[in-house]
Amino acid sequence: MPDIDWYLYKQIFPPIERLCAPLPGTDAVQLAECLGLDTRKYSIGHSSSSAGAGNPIQDMCPLESQIPDAIRFEKCTRFSLRCRHCKHSFTFEGLIPNLKEMEVEGIICPNREVCGKVLSTLGVTAQLEHAIRVATAKYYDSYLVCDDPSCGNRTRQMSVYGHRCLGPRGRAEGCLGRMRYEMGEREMYNQLLYFRNLWKVEADAKDMKGLTEEEREKCKVVGERNRERFETCQRVVEAYLAKCGRVWVQMDGLFGFMLK
C-alpha cells in the first residue's frame, strides 16, 4: 500500500511551495496544513528559492524578546514527566496548562485511577536535567539538514562548497538547498528558555484568560504553595543558562572604540 504522507511531503508539497512562494501571505507551514501534513512531525523550512535572499524587507525580523511564547517555543521539544510508581508518562506544559495535575502537595500523576501519587521534587529536577542534557547533546552533535523539503539530507559533514547541499547522492547535484544546523545556538537558547518558562508561578492576565473563577483561585493557591518547588526547578535551568553565551553581551565589542 503506498504511503500517502510520503508522496504528499516529497512529491506534492515541494512544487506547490515553489509555485506559491511569490504570493504574499503564504508560508510553508500554512501550505502544509492545507495538504493535511503534520507540521510537528515534519520540519518544514523555506527553500533557498523562496527565502528571498538579498531582499532586506524579507530579511527583517522582530526582536526575540518581542515574539510571543507560543510562537517562540513552537518548535521546542516538549518536556515529558514520568511517574516512577506506575511508569506513566505525560507532557508538562506549566502551571496553567497542567492545572488538573497540580495540587498543593506538588505535581500529581494524571493516572489517578491506578496511581495518583505525588511526583517528588528530586525526581522532577532529575528528569528536567536529563531533558536539558539530551538537548545539549543534540546541539553538540552538530547535525546539518537541508532546508529543501524534497531533499531531506542530514549529515555531520560540511562540504567544501560551504552551505551548499551536496544532494542525496553526495555529488553536489540534484539539490539547490542550503545546509543549516539542526539545532543551532538560537534553538538551544530557546529550548533552555522554554524549560525555564515551565516553572513560572506568576501567571499573566492573558494566560489566565478563559479560566473560571474557581480555576483562577486554584491557580493562585497552588502556585503559591509550590513556589519553592518551582524555584528549585528554575535554578536547575538557570545554571545552564548562565553558561550560555547568548545571555551575555560583550560590552568591549560594542564600546571598544572608546578605549582606543
Q: Could you walk me through the main structural features you see in this protein, from its secondary elements to its overall organization?
A:
The longest helix is centred in the middle third of the chain and has 21 residues, at 121-141. The model is unreliable at 42-60 (pLDDT under 50). Strands 6-5-7 form a three-stranded antiparallel β-sheet, with no helix packed on it. It has a two-stranded antiparallel ribbon with strand order 1-2. With 260 residues, the chain is mainly alpha-helical. It is built from nine helices and seven strands; from the N terminus they run ααααββββαβββαααα. A hairpin with a 7-residue loop joins β5 and β6 (154-155). 38% of the residues lie in helices and 7% in strands. α5 (121-141) packs parallel to α8 (227-241). The termini are far apart.
List the helices and strands and how they pair.
Elements (H helix, E strand, L loop, with lengths): L3 H17 L7 H7 L21 H4 L9 H4 L7 E3 L6 E3 L10 E2 L2 E2 L13 H21 L2 E3 L7 E2 L23 E3 L3 H13 L15 H13 L1 H15 L9 H5 L5
Antiparallel strand pairs: 1-2, 3-4, 5-6, 5-7
Helix pairs in contact: 5-6, 5-8, 6-8
